[in-house]
Amino acid sequence: MNYDEIGQSLIELYDEIFVNTKRLKKKTYKDDISYYKEKYKELFADIKGICDNGDETRFLAIAEAVPSRVFQYLSDIKSKRKRNLELLDYNLAMVSFFVPLIGEVKSDGAEQLTDCMVDAWNKTFPETKIGKASVESINGGFKSSLCYVTTAVCRSMNKPDDCYELTMLREYRDKYL
To answer: Rounded CA gap, 148 and 173, in Å?
Structure first.
């Protein structure tokens, strides 16, 4: 695949992840990761080739594909409130599946590529900041706390650990679940 095709394939992967993120569950997370790895194995093989070459210029071109497309999607939403709420969902898809999947590529350059992707996302959406997570850290977070992903998203918004959102969700978890 050429770089434009890789960018387009990354957008297709992200779009599928975005739709499926709404069903993010502890029980299915590892299976979902395996599903994406199998379905997009050709894409991941191409990404491995790019990572093995370590070409930072190519990393940047690939890293900007998804944030650019999401920016287009969001610019079609007129209401600032709705746009910001939708951005939270896009952040969740990026943090919980997309970046961890790219990090699963078996190459020394994969970490550098995921760093580029996170940087490109944060430059495109400076009002929220995401961080990098791995499949293992997310899966491990499910084991220790049901609020792991929520905590990651709130931290990306520079909210403290005792913010209203996290306090409310923890209370729901502890008292009702």
So the answer is: 12
